[in-house]
């Protein structure tokens, strides 16, 4: 799952070397923290958050068999 987020994000940004994904496990949630270059935050979020929403949808769909809820946070 971590690689899925990374591959999608690297395809969207201008600075793919700065893309980093960290997994934070909380009580009932797995949070994938997507770190990108500050100039690329807008590209990952998209107009009105459409790309971020699509990324979250793909990750949630891919994590159907994971017993915890999955979330994606975008951090610059």
Automatic annotation (TrEMBL):
Task: Decide whether keyword Cytoplasm is in the record.
Answer: yes
**One annotated Gene Ontology cellular component of this protein:** cytoplasm
Keywords, comma-separated and alphabetical:
Cell shape, Cell wall biogenesis/degradation, Chaperone, Cytoplasm, RNA-binding
Matching InterPro entries, A to Z? KH_dom-like_a/b (IPR015946), KH_sf_prok-type (IPR009019), KhpA (IPR020627)
GO BP, one annotated term: cell wall organization
Role this protein plays: A probable RNA chaperone. Forms a complex with KhpB which binds to cellular RNA and controls its expression. Plays a role in peptidoglycan (PG) homeostasis and cell length regulation.
Q: Which family does it belong to?
A: Belongs to the KhpA RNA-binding protein family.
What name does this protein carry?
Answer: RNA-binding protein KhpA
In its UniProt entry, the species of origin is given as: Paenibacillus agilis
Query: Taxonomy-wise, where does this protein's organism fall, top ranks first?
Result: Bacteria, Bacillati, Bacillota, Bacilli, Bacillales
């Amino acid at each position: 799952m971590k690689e899925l987020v990374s591959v999608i994000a690297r395809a969207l940004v201008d600075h793919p070397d700065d893309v980093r994904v960290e997994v934070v496990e909380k009580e009932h949630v797995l949070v994938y923290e997507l770190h990108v270059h500050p100039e690329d935050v807008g590209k990952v979020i998209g107009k009105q958050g459409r790309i971020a929403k699509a990324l979250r949808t793909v990750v949630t769909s891919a994590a159907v068999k994971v017993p915890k809820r999955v979330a994606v946070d975008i951090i610059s």
